[in-house]
Amino acid sequence: MNATEASVIVMAGAGTGKTRTLVARVSHLIAKRGVKPEAITIATFTNKAAKEIRERIAHFLDIGSASRIQMGTFHSLAARILRRHHKTAGLPKHFTIIDDDDALRLIKSCVERHFPEGMPGRADKVDRYISALPTVIRRWKCWGLTVAEIEDAERPRRSEEEERLAQFYVAYQFELDRRGVMDFGDLVVRASALLRDHPEVADVEIGGIGHLLVDEAQDANQAQVELARLLASRGACVMVVGDVDQSIYSFQGGYPEAMDHIAGENARIYPLTINRRCTDEILAPAVKLVGWNRRKFPKSLASGTSGERVQHGLYGGEREEAWAVAARLVELARAGQKYDDIAVLVRSAFVIPTIEEGLLKAKIPYELAGGASLVDREEVRDIAAYMRLAVNPWDDLAFQRIVNRPTRQLGPVAEHALVDQHLATGEPFHEVCARIAANPQGRVVPEAVEALKRLSSLLEALHRSHAHAEEDTASILEFVLRPEGVGYEDFAGKAGNRAAKRRVENLNVLRRIANEEPSPPLFLERLVLGGEIAVERSKRGAVTISTMHASKGLEWDHVLCVGVDSAVVPSPRALREPVRGKAGDRWFGPSAGGMEEERRLVHVAFTRARKSLWVSGASIRNGRAVNPSPFFAESGLTIDSFFDPFVDDKPKAGMRGKGFSRSKPIAPVL
User: Fold this and answer.
1) What is the 3-state secondary structure (H, E, C) of 653-668?
2) Which helix (H) or strand (E) holds 398?
3) SS3 78
4) Is residue 486 scored above 90 in pLDDT?
5) Is the Cβ–Cβ distance between 286 and 246 less than 8 Å?
6) How far is CA 353 from the centre of its chain?
7) Is the dihedral of CA 597, 599, 602, 606 positive or negative?
8) Separation of alpha carbons 602 and 172, rounded Å
9) In this structure, are 169 and 75 located in the same domain?
């Protein structure tokens, strides 16, 4: 908190007070050192974290000081820079950020155009590239690879497959640029390019940054590392907070060394080793497990508090394991524990249905975490598309989404005709609709002409409302929802069932966000960048079932880590991932993932538990014999016998001598 070095790494193990340390540092800078809030920039990885940090700073100081700090996710910080300098960046004033659904649609069109109709094996090739490209493009953008680097005539040639993927990347990026839109991955890459290539922009944006703080720095990818280094490049003091043993997002480009690369070679390291969450019985296997990874310093993490020993073992099959899990949950409930203080964590989602089956039979209430966020809902994407058309009436991706929502009897032929007309004339879609309605020429059925005229009027009114009042998101939203406008709310709720009710509830959440964000472009940005906006969960007490990845940042009194066997943990798929390049390599990215990340993931899962931890697996999964996960032995949880809770209440030898439950077996719930 009081460090005076120009560059500091706070190595904050799980439960050691990472956020508290960051907040205390900022409060110290402002209150004790006289640093102006405007000179402080904080980069986080979720909007939720940014909000929590700002609220805590406001509590220590005052709301005014907290509001003057430049704070947000890397993507939101990048978006602000690009909006302030959109002309220099070559972007329209009200550029929009497309979601994954629209990105996939563009990728599909690029691939289908590349392979001509009638080409032998076309269908298989189209499917293969459409499947592969979203991940490839996302990774390349995480690693900072740009179109300019791909088109550099002097760059080394790659394999034939990599060159073809690169061609598709260039074609996809051309389609984005032609529309004046960006995808999620563009934000950080283009903001970095803007700061790097335009000193006059850097003077404005980073000249005044005296202190840069990065939260959860172990999750940064190469593009974010570069942006952080640029933000600090005018002499800012840097403080990164994180834990290399919680770096679990290599599939998003993250890598443990990111902390060092942001802070620089001469950074002073301050370890936080006192855990205030878990008992020492829980910490012991968690620490021992990641001790097998290559590391600069030994792992030290302890709490000084004692509790229950870790319950662990294997069961005859996945259903037996599910029954044992249900029995453990009932036992906890009978002991006075609330279901919402309990979580069941799995490495891979395919394990969940069997666990659900066990809980349903035992009548144990549960909820799935990490499901669809608000922005993934169909109705929210529809509203976003209407809002995009208000801002940009030439947005063909948004138009294709809403052309029949609500239903307007406009089939694929009519839709293609409308888009083709738009591409041929460059007219906005309200004019395109009016033109074809006036002269259908067989492109739309007679019954749809009136619907087309009405759609033209609606789109024109929608755009006019934004043109006349650029800061009126709420009124534009009401025009889309109300019967006198588009009538979308009636369309969403017309079924009258539970799903329809949920859709209407989600529309009301959008109303709240619209009242908080009067600018339509910023409203759209909040939807796309606020991916963790959660769908409202029920208020009843329920056990949480979650993947280990989705559990990061959360904690419960009691955690059951299920499916810890060789079919699931470590993930066979993760271990098959090829070894990539090295830090700074924009084509292959830094080496990450593999067995070491699997250990880190289980370390994260173990340290979600405050009071008790259960670790279990199956000896037969999907009809095949499997081995115990090697992580049992690596974490010191010895397995020396096999336990079948349906046969007797004592461990017995068998199943290749594998399987074990050290604690007293729990009677199944029947």
Assistant:
1) CCCCCCCCCCCCCCCC
2) helix 396-402
3) helix
4) yes
5) no
6) 23
7) negative
8) 37
9) no
- The rounded distance, in Å, linking the Cα atoms of 658 and 642 is 6
pLDDT tens for 538-594 read: 546 899 999 999 999 999 999 999 999 999 999 988 887 766 667 777 887 787 788
Domain identity same for 523 and 491: yes
pLDDT at 631: 95
CATH number of the domain within which 222 lies = 3.40.50.300
What is the pTM (predicted TM-score) of this model?
Answer: 0.88
Neighbouring residues of 254: CB distance < 8 A, sequence distance ≥ 6: 218, 219, 220, 221, 247, 248, 592
Give me the helices (H) in 482-545, please. Answer: 488-493, 498-516, 520-529
DSSP 555: -
> Tens digit of pLDDT for each residue in 34-78?
999 999 999 998 888 998 999 999 988 888 888 899 999 999 999
Burial 48-63 (b: 16+ CB within 10 A, else e): ebbeebbebbbeebee
Q: What is the total count of domains within the chain?
A: 4
Please give the distance of CA 77 from its chain centroid, rounded to a whole number. Answer: 17
Tell whether the model's pLDDT for residue 3 goes beyond 70. Answer: no
Answer yes or no: do 485 and 556 share one domain: no
Based on the fold, state whether residues 143 and 290 are members of the same structural domain.
no
Helices 74-84 and 186-197, axial angle in degrees (round to 10): 50
**Any domain includes 162:** yes
222-241 residues labelled b (16+ CB within 10 A) or e (exposed): bbbbbbbbbbbeeebbbbbb
Of 69, 78, 83, whose CA–CA distance to 208 is shortest? 69
Helix (H, G, I), strand (E, B) or coil at 382: helix
- Alpha-carbon distance 369 to 553, whole Å? 13
655 pLDDT exceeds 60?
A: no
- Quick check: 662 pLDDT over 80? no
**Domain finish residue from 509, 529, 549:** 529
SS3 569: coil
Count of beta carbons in the 10 Å neighbourhood of residue 67: 12
CA distance 302 to 14: 10
Q: Give the three-state DSSP class for 20.
A: helix
Residues 6+ apart with CB under 8 A from 558: 332, 337, 341, 342, 343, 609, 610, 611, 612, 613, 614
Q: Which residue is it, tokens 């172990």?
A: 218
- Look at residues 238, 297, 299 and name the one whose alpha carbon lies nearest to residue 264: 238
Specify whether 159 is located in the same domain as 197: no
**Which whole number is the average pLDDT over 498-506?**
88
**Domain housing 603:** 286-371+539-634
Residues in the chain: 670
**Could you give the angle at the alpha carbon of 329 between the alpha carbons of 324 and 332, nearest 5°?**
125
